[in-house]
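Model the whole thing, not chain by chain.
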Amino acid sequence: DQQVKQNSPSLSVQEGRISILNCDYTNSMFDYFLWYKKYPAEGPTFLISISSIKDKNEDGRFTVFLNKSAKHLSLHIVPSQPGDSAVYFCAAIASTGNQFYFGTGTSLTVIP
Amino acid sequence: DAGVIQSPRHEVTEMGQEVTLRCKPISGHNSLFWYRQTMMRGLELLIYFNNNVPIDDSGMPEDRFSAKMPNASFSTLKIQPSEPRDSAVYFCASSLTVEETQYFGPGTRLLVL
């Protein structure tokens, strides 16, 4: 049962344009969401997070949007750079019950 | 801090052999997680510990998998006997508390022939 879904396994974007990575979840108890970035042969590294009490969190070129009614979050990267090419995982945590799940990942390729 | 340390980085073994993966969490972190990454299922949580105690092992696929955390600075994930379908990258992660950001190790790439 995949409680966190990333329906796009891959995405290609031209350098300088916006990258939008999407993530859907099914459990309304999730109250904290994170994005991780993973390069080949390395472990995932934390990128940005958002609490369910917010609908937007911004950190430099990275912005995460949360739509609780739609159970949907997205990561925007503007402008995209070739170094952003990686696999991006979204993760969701339900602090009550200590539940957390990762999505299957979206492989982003930024074309120079 | 050296971050989360995993060993070995690569392991190639034959079906039926025992495999032991090792993890050293970040000092001071109270929670430790074992994940398996496959193409089909992404990152799957296998088991996690809080203060060295296993909290949730519902993600462990079969009885062939076992994990221990004898102290706050060391954990093992054991597969006995190993099978080709266990081939994957296994990640260990640690965090200050269960709800906080997890920091991942570099992973162990396991190939079972």
